[in-house]
Amino acid sequence: MELKPLILKKNEERRLRAGHLWVYSNEVDTAETPLTGFTPGELVEVRERGGRPVGTGYVNPHSLICARLLSRDAAHPVSRSLILHRVNQALALRERLSDAPFYRLVFGEADLLPGLVVDRYGDHLVVQITTAGMETLRDDILDALDKVVAPLGILLRNDSSARELEGLPKSVEVARGTVPDEAELVEHGTRFRVPLAAGQKTGWFYDQSDNRGRLLRYAAGARVLDVFSYVGAWGIQAARFGASDVLCIDASERALQHAAANAALNDVHIETLQADAFDALKALRAEGRDFDVVVVDPPAFIKRRKDHRAGLDAYRRLNQAAMQLLGKDGILISCSCSHHLGDHELLGMMNLAARHVDRNLQVIETGGQAWDHPIHPAIPETRYLKAIFARVFM
Question: Which of 158, 320, 332, 368 is deepest in the core (most CB within 10 A)?
Answer without folding.
Answer: 332
